[in-house]
Structures are given as structure tokens and as C-alpha cells.
């Protein structure tokens, strides 16, 4: 697994240790199985961005702190210059760039997401809240609650993120989109 995932896993362990909680207690608070939580904390498995956002909310810590180890400080505004947001590459297929990494207590988590083309089936996940995606580049197949949707540059979708959803780049070309998790 990549270095960033291992570092995030270490921060998850450190948070749990600081709060003096068991893996079972953290898993229950986040609504996942203890075995899934233990996989994330081991650093040997991919950690979904939605889970990172959920655990941050559940334990009142900043998502940026879990991703980068740095706490945001801005309370009035935060500017993210092109290509400078805190980046996490969960795998070669998915890259997330946080666009609110400098803002403390952000109510939404905006990311620029890059999805590389691959031949794998769409991986579905779900998380609390709602999500907005705006396609910036490429063509993307989305599956939301059993519905297949094709999005083209400029198209957007707003959906209930508790419903199983996932995406895939089409036509052998990468996809870039703005994702806002609320």
C-alpha cells in the first residue's frame, strides 16, 4: 500500500489511542464493522475518502488533519491555488485533491478528483450525507442506487450519498471532476 495510506492509518491509530477507544468503539461510532476499521488502521488496505470524512466528523477532527497531519487555521476564507491542494492518491486509479484544506470547521468537503481509466468493474461505496459532482474533463459512468448514468463535461449530479455509488472513466481517458461531500 502507498505511503500516504500508511500515514493516514497511523493518524487513525493515533486518534483512537488519544481518545482511549477500542477498535470496536471507533467502528461502532463510524457505522462500519470492526474488521473493516482494523483493515483501515493497519495501513495495508485502501481507505475510502468518504470514511476519512466520516471519522473526522464523528470525532470532531479536521479531515485535513487526517489526510496531511496538518490542522487548518483559516476561519474567514481559504484560497487553494491550482494544483496546490492537499493531495491523496488512494490508488493509481483515484487521486483526491482537497480544496478546503486550509479552512477550519468546513461544513462541506470539496475535492478535485481524478479517475484514471481501467478495466475493473465499478466499486460501490456509500457514506453519510449528500454529494455533488461536476464533471470537468472526460466522460464518466456513474452508478447510483442501481442506476447507470453517463456524465459528459459540464454535467453534474447531486445525490444521496447513503445510496451505493461509484464511478468509472470511459473511452480510455482520465476523468476530472469536482466532488463536494456535504
Automatic annotation (TrEMBL):
InterPro entries: Cro/C1-type_HTH, Cupin_2, Lambda_DNA-bd_dom_sf, RmlC-like_jellyroll, RmlC_Cupin_sf, TransReg_Diox_bact_type. PROSITE patterns: HTH_CROC1 (PS50943). One of its GO terms (molecular function) is DNA binding. It comes from the Bacteria. GO terms for cellular component: cytosol. Residues 12-66 form the HTH cro/C1-type domain. This is Transcriptional regulator.
Amino acid at each position: 500500500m502507498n505511503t500516504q495510506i500508511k500515514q493516514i492509518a497511523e493518524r487513525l491509530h493515533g486518534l483512537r489511542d488519544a481518545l482511549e477507544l477500542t477498535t470496536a468503539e471507533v467502528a461502532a461510532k463510524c457505522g462500519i464493522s470492526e474488521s473493516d476499521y482494523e483493515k483501515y488502521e493497519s495501513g495495508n488496505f485502501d481507505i475510502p475518502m468518504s470514511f476519512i470524512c466520516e471519522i473526522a466528523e464523528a470525532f470532531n477532527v479536521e479531515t485535513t488533519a487526517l489526510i496531511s497531519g496538518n490542522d487548518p487555521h483559516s476561519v474567514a476564507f481559504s484560497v487553494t491555488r491550482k494544483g496546490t491542494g492537499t493531495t491523496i492518491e488512494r490508488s493509481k486509479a483515484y487521486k483526491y485533491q482537497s480544496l478546503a484544506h486550509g479552512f477550519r470547521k468546513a461544513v462541506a468537503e470539496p475535492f478535485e478528483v481524478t479517475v484514471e481509466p481501467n478495466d475493473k468493474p465499478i466499486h460501490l461505496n456509500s457514506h453519510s450525507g449528500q454529494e455533488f459532482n461536476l464533471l470537468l474533463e472526460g466522460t464518466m459512468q456513474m452508478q447510483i442506487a442501481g442506476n447507470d448514468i453517463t456524465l459528459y463535461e459540464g454535467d453534474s449530479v447531486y445525490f444521496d450519498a447513503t445510496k451505493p455509488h461509484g464511478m468509472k472513466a470511459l473511452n480510455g481517458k482520465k476523468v476530472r471532476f469536482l466532488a463536494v461531500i456535504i
